[in-house]
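Record format v2
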Amino acid sequence: MAVRERSSIQGADTQFLDPAVLSRISGLDLLARTVVDGFLQGLHRSPHLGMSLDFAEHRAYMPGDDIRRIDWKLFGRTDRFYVKLFEAETSANFMVALDISRSMSFGTGAVTKLDYARYLAASLSYFSQKQRDRVGLATFDHEIVEYVPPSTRHLQLILHTLTRVEPGRPGTLRDPLMRLGDNLHHRGIILVLSDFYEEPEQVIDSVRHLRARGHDVIVFHLLDPAELEFPYESAASFRDMESDIMIPIVPDELADEYRTLIGQHTEELARLFTGSRIDYTVLDTSKPLDYALFQYLSSREKMSRVR
Amino acid sequence: MGLLAPLFLLGLVGLAVPIIVHLTEKQRRNVVDFPSLMFLRKIPFRSTQRRRIHHWALLSIRALALALLVAAFTRPFFANDEVAIGSTLGPREVVVVLDRSYSMGYGDRWERAKTQAREVFAGLDASDRASLVFMGRGAEALLRSTSDRDRLLTALDTASLSADGTLYGPALKLAQTILEESQFPNREAVIISDFQRNGWKGDEGVTFPPGTVVKSVLISDDATPNAAVASVAFRREFFSGQERMTATARVVRRQGEAPADRTIVLEVDGQEVQTKTVRLDPTGSATVTFEPFTLSELYTRGSIRLDPDALPQDDVFHFVLSPGRAMRILVLEGGSPRPDASLYMQRALEISEEASFQVDVRRSTSLSAADLEATDVVVLNDTRFPQGATEDRLRGFVEAGGGLLLVLGERSAWQTGLEELLPGRFGPARDHTRGAARLGYLDYTHPVFELFAGPRGGDFARARFFRSRDLELGPEGRVLARFDDGSVALAERRLGDGHVLVWTSTMDAFWNDLAVQPVFLPFIHQVMRHLGGYRERVPWFTTGQVLDLADPDGMVFVADRERELAPDVAQVALTPGGGSVALPATSGPRFLELEEAGFYEIRPPGTNPERTLAIAVNVDVTESELESMDPAELAAAVASREAGGEIGAGGEMLTPEIQARNQERRQSLWRLLMVAALVLLLAETAISNWISRAATLRFKDGRSYVPSNT
């Protein structure tokens, strides 16, 4: 089914999801609605997944099940105990953890990684709001910079916060995510948007903490095409945007090795996140947002299944 | 090749700028912000790659274009292409004036000069004509206006250095004549020389035809240390009946850095008799006096040699000496003379180093033919003039070349017929009443007094004359000295080949005190030498001199035996180099040009006498002064005034029209360089555009991001 849905997405008109087009929209509110509504129109299906108590199936009662879920009508007809399984939880927390460290300001195309992440955060928050979830936002670099607790009324605050975030400081994952995990008392969905310039073990240690607290974690790894392809030719001094360290580089000689290393890095992250049952997706900021939205919906769909 | 604006070469520094910037500064300025270097820092850093240049061809083209532009702005020109240029303008008349004076023998100058001349001949076209003129003190056109290059080169190969000095005038005059006779439109004079200053006087009067290109080729050395034997002086002494000669050599050193010891050797008749060491200052002279040697043979050959240096020709000095011959003087006093009438004169004549005098004093006035045959000078000292046959013999003696001195005193008396013999008629004795008379006028041009012409040459005015005899000068007479009252003191008359002198006072200390003055001895010696026809033998000659062996007056300086140079005897002269010059018997002049340094021998052909007449010839020592003049000075002096040309960088004298043509051709190189630079820049534009497009395509293909700029 997922494959079928994706093919339908690819067939949709995604012009308005192009980051270059979206960058011309000044308000994140409008942008989020444009993205989500356009995206959902392309899906040709109900966007409201798991938000109601939709019956999914019956299952035989097993000791330990909540007796309140026993379908007594069916017991009356069959004299057997069955419990009802529903499609999803309702009123989930949707928390966006947005990395606003200085490296997120990098961009070689129409938008920077932070812009791209901001669009995603706004769109998915808007989307979740429409799902009647409680939406929240935490921006962080090496600490939590802005924190908007999850609420059904905080969408505008989130959009406003996203509008004025400015990258500026070096960032780390562990401390802010640990702090975020500690602040979220109710389990929910946490969307982590970052470029993850840390060793994979450190990254997974930081994110796994959220998972360990029962949150469903969706990780979007944002990378600019230049970070993926390293297309530079001229020798130049490359400056680390967070540490300001400069290194003279002859790209011709290093590009292949760089691509190999970034590939190994993403593969290792994917392996580790998958092992921790965390959905991990690498997003090219030059690509339309529909792919990210699809990945989110796909992940959300999987999470909504109650077993 | 030269540059009109060499400072533009600084522009070549610009070549390094893009490369240096590319390799160093560029990376510093071209900073790429990147999210994280965590992956790049894992890659081993290779510093050498940082300096990699991507497009060598492009860089080379740009650098070459810039270099050509810089070269064009420096305005390069060819400095020595007059020959080549001339060859394109029509046939040329080229005169090569090659200095072969002996100073060109310094080091390898001669070979260098011949090489330069060969290059000129090698650059001739088939239609060109060339002449080869050798320059010394004279000029010799070995080949004149020929287009046969092989003959020119052969003549050059067989040419040898001469022992001559340098005089620019004759050779340049000869070159002028050749150029003036030429009908070719292009004329060129190439002067190859060491350009010694002492050969140029500035008034040579040489002017090449208008349009002549004068090219000077200076053959020189950075330093020219040189020593030479400048001259040799001799002092004769008679010791135990033998004549001894003391030679004193003067050695000069022209250049040098520190005092140097040189060995100097005296050779006599080919035998080394003495060796000495002389210390020479860097620029100075020294004298070396050798121990006396006995001179007993005619034509004794001697040489004084320094150990040879870079210019060996002036390190040896030759001379020929013969024993001196005593001059026989017969003094006739007549009867009852004063006791000291001839005393002072006799004593003075007995004191002599160079020319000894044999004085015979007689108290009679009779003379036999035998007496006169063995006499050079007859002195009639205060006595009556002989009469009769003696007078006739005396007249004949004088006319044959003998000398007669008439000293007038108390006993001198005029007699008829003496006016045919004496310079004037003398009168009675006259006292100088207003104090003593003094000699007020001396004819210093006369051989008797020329010795005293110089400063401090002798003070005759100190001599006081109390009495003298007046002399009424005849038409044949010549006054050589006068007293301060205007009366004649000494008069001369030439009679035949001989001379008659009349001294109007005495030679004792009675009428005057000249005999006790210092000038008396040299004065009386000079009088006797003049009357006796004494000629000091010339020990040496200088190269370039020409002797007329048939001139007896001239050859008395050379030969001691009249027969040796008799005009009716054929002679042959053997040169120092082994050649021979025939001197046939003739009534006309017999010239012998002394071209080589060394000893010339003159003898009848087929004979080998024991002591052959020898003539020593030395090089002109002024030639050993190697100071050079500016070739441009000479070129400017000989260039045509009508042409109004200017002097080129190499000392060339260029006429305006040739100068303009040459200047245009020599400097036109910048245009070619500019065109080449523009072509390269166009090529660079095309290539860089192509590279840029290729980079853009790669970018669009996702394989490139930043187009390369180098």
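The beta strands of chain A are 55-60, 82-86, 93-99, 134-140, 144-151, 188-194, 216-223, 236-240, 246-249, 279-284.
The longest strand of chain A covers residues 144-151.
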